[in-house]
From TrEMBL, chains A, B:
<protein>
    <submittedName>
        <fullName>DNA-binding transcriptional regulator, MarR family</fullName>
    </submittedName>
</protein>
<dbReference type="InterPro" id="IPR039422">
    <property type="entry name" value="MarR/SlyA-like"/>
</dbReference>
<dbReference type="InterPro" id="IPR000835">
    <property type="entry name" value="HTH_MarR-typ"/>
</dbReference>
<dbReference type="GO" id="GO:0003677">
    <property type="term" value="F:DNA binding"/>
</dbReference>
<dbReference type="Pfam" id="PF01047">
    <property type="entry name" value="MarR"/>
</dbReference>
<feature type="domain" description="HTH marR-type">
    <location>
        <begin position="1"/>
        <end position="135"/>
    </location>
</feature>
<dbReference type="InterPro" id="IPR036388">
    <property type="entry name" value="WH-like_DNA-bd_sf"/>
</dbReference>
<dbReference type="GO" id="GO:0003700">
    <property type="term" value="F:DNA-binding transcription factor activity"/>
</dbReference>
<keyword id="KW-0238">DNA-binding</keyword>
<dbReference type="InterPro" id="IPR036390">
    <property type="entry name" value="WH_DNA-bd_sf"/>
</dbReference>
<dbReference type="GO" id="GO:0006950">
    <property type="term" value="P:response to stress"/>
</dbReference>
Length: 143, 143
DNA sequence: TTATATAGTTGTATAATACAACTATATTGG
DNA sequence: CCAATATAGTTGTATTATACAACTATATAA
């Protein structure tokens, strides 16, 4: 069982996460949670808090608060659902899209600087393995 | 510039981190910060809060609090430095080592379950690329 | 048409963090 | 050699991201 590769991954993952979370505050305008929520709305279109909470693996109350922050900043619009007056959907605004793109670009630039000496092959592999990991986790959990 | 691989990595990294942070609470006894601090002491030996803070990229006050939690739980011992009465060093106890090992094993087991269908080659690559990323970041920041 | 289920919000609590103010001890320069 | 400064650590306060529980308003079902 004592798998050498697991040991390496386990160790590197904690360092990886720690470092990214601590440094990204200095480089990005939008904080992590806002960025992820905005990206979700931009990628998959308008949705209500329940759906968003499910998709983002968060509590509804958490998303509710995060969404109202974005509303206050005019990054998203809160639109009542005409078919169900209990619910709403949040739609990204043009200001929100702009802000998202700026942040995305800043993240790319930073990543690009870090990976500048990597071969294209290693960059591709890294992205694919992260994707594979995420997909594997999703499969295992959605039983 | 618009590098397809960067795009993939950027996207996958946020998902990766989000998912790990949210799920690990359910599986581990020690929380993330305690685990990392304990692992640091186990790996590199006794140290004071200043050194620990530098090595872990945290504020001294943060480490000070985290260390006192570990002291309360008897996982580490706070030993005065005989050569400098301002300072201390924290040393992991046998209870602490045991707790660390149990947690490490639980993390391995979980990771092992997730990666059970991966080839040895992919596991190795993934660990090595994470390591390479971490090393690259360290080089770039320690100018 | 009442009982129950659902979408969302808000109150409260917790964890991890940083910064600033502070205490106690060491080191250094006139 | 002692006054000024630097250093190790702690504690007060604030922020951010999160969850759970209680609640409101609306919809659906028995």
């Amino acid at each position: 069982m004592s798998d050498q590769h697991l040991d390496l991954i386990e160790r590197q993952v904690t360092d990886f996460i720690r470092r990214i979370i601590l440094t990204e505050k200095q480089f990005n305008n939008l904080d992590r949670s806002a960025y992820i929520l905005l990206r979700q709305l931009a990628t998959y279109g308008p949705a209500g808090v329940k759906t968003l909470a499910q998709d983002l693996h968060l509590d509804i109350s958490t998303v509710s608060r995060q969404a109202s922050v974005l509303v206050d900043k005019k990054y998203v619009e809160k639109i009542p659902n005409p078919d169900d007056r209990r619910s709403y959907y949040y739609q990204i605004t043009s200001i929100g899209s702009l802000e998202l793109e700026e942040n995305k670009q800043r993240r790319y630039d930073r990543l690009s600087g870090i990976l500048e000496d990597w071969s294209e092959e290693d960059k591709e592999r890294f992205g694919l393995l992260l994707k594979k990991y995420n997909e594997t986790v999703n499969e295992k959990l959605d039983l």
